[in-house]
């Protein structure tokens, strides 16, 4: 079957396709190698055709995939009701009608099942209710039940959540160092210390780090970490941005839709 390389271009490196993968880290054993001395499949990320492969995966006649499950609240509290969103995708070439999708919390079904009908290549996001009766760790597992599914390996998606005791309350704190125009050393590590007030709660459940303005002429030189009182560093950004400049209005949030590695300078927003 002839292939049109223009349909396979990615933004660089490997890229997942509907039924395959393009790029230097596609499986070189089972993939088809694209040989062209002037044009590589990797697009901007690859000018070396020796490393460009097209790897194809099996196409099943019936293949329902649960891509992800996500809870509406990052810090659920026992005896409260929350919404869990689940994305379902029809990988197959056939339309599927009224396929049951269910949500399980620690193995027990949560809420009523949802019937999902999708055309080939179509995706939909469906919602379930989740009401934890007690605090503790919960595994939320969403599963599709297509009777004719030929690829059950992708039928489920899992997320793990911690439920807080009934009556728990949360309070937001905004902390700033107050330091302005602190120079970045080319030789030594530059520190900026944030101190939480002494009457703060004993448990910190979520942190967002905001970089109001950090100016530098080569962003990939910068490695940023958040270091807690226990001395353990948490990586915020390392070697990102290439030769571009600055971090302006950058918000580091572990619930952000995009990773910092997918952004571009000056990395404004989440």
CATH superfamily of the largest domain: Immunoglobulins
Work out the radius of gyration. 24 Å
Low-confidence runs: 1-52
CATH topology of the largest domain: Immunoglobulin-like
Helix content: under 10%
Mean pLDDT equals 79
> Strand tally, please?
16
CATH architecture of the largest domain: Sandwich
CATH class category label of the largest domain = Mainly Beta
Q: How far is it from the N-terminal to the C-terminal residue, by CA?
A: 43 Å
Helix and strand sequence: EEEEEEEEEEEEEEEE
Largest sheet: 5 strands, antiparallel
Structural class: mainly beta
By DSSP (H or I, 4+ residues per run), the number of helices equals: 0
Shape annotation: flat
- The proportion of strand residues reads 25-35%
Can you tell me the number of structural domains? 3
Features:
mainly beta; 270 residues; Immunoglobulin-like; 16 strands; 3 domains
Can you give a write-up of this model?
The chain is mainly beta. It folds into three domains: 5-56, no CATH class; 64-163, Immunoglobulins (Immunoglobulin-like, Sandwich); 171-270, no CATH class. The protein has no helices and 16 strands. The strands form five sheets. Strands 7, 8, 9, 11 and 12 form a five-stranded antiparallel sheet that branches. A four-stranded antiparallel sheet has the order 1-2-4-3, with no helix packed on it. The chain is flat and about 60 Å long. It starts with 14 loop residues before the first strand and ends in an 18-residue tail after the last strand. The relative contact order is 0.11. Residues 1-52 have low confidence and may be disordered.
């Amino acid at each position: 079957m002839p292939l049109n390389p223009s349909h396979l271009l990615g933004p660089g490196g490997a890229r997942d396709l509907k039924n395959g993968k393009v790029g230097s880290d596609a499986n070189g054993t089972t993939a088809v190698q694209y040989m062209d001395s002037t044009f590589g499949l990797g697009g901007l990320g690859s000018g070396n055709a020796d490393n460009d492969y097209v790897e194809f995966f099996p196409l099943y006649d019936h293949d329902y995939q649960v891509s992800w499950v996500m809870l509406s609240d990052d810090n659920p509290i026992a005896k409260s009701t929350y919404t869990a969103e689940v994305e379902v995708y029809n990988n197959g070439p056939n339309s599927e009608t009224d396929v049951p999708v269910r949500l399980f919390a620690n193995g027990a079904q949560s809420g009523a099942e949802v019937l999902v009908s999708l055309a080939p290549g179509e995706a939909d996001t469906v919602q379930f209710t989740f009401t934890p009766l007690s605090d503790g760790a919960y595994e939320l597992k969403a599963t599709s039940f297509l009777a004719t599914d030929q690829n059950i390996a992708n039928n489920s998606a899992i997320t793990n959540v911690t439920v807080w005791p009934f009556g728990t309350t949360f309070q937001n704190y905004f902390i700033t160092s107050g330091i302005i125009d602190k120079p970045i050393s080319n030789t030594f590590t530059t520190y900026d210390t944030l101190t939480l007030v002494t009457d703060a709660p004993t448990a910190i459940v979520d942190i967002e780090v905001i970089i109001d303005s950090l100016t530098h002429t080569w962003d990939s030189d910068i490695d940023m970490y958040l270091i807690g009182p226990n001395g353990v560093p948490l990586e915020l950004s390392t070697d990102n941005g290439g030769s571009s400049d600055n971090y302006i209005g950058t918000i580091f949030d572990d619930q952000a839709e995009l990773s910092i590695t997918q952004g571009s300078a000056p990395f404004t927003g989440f």
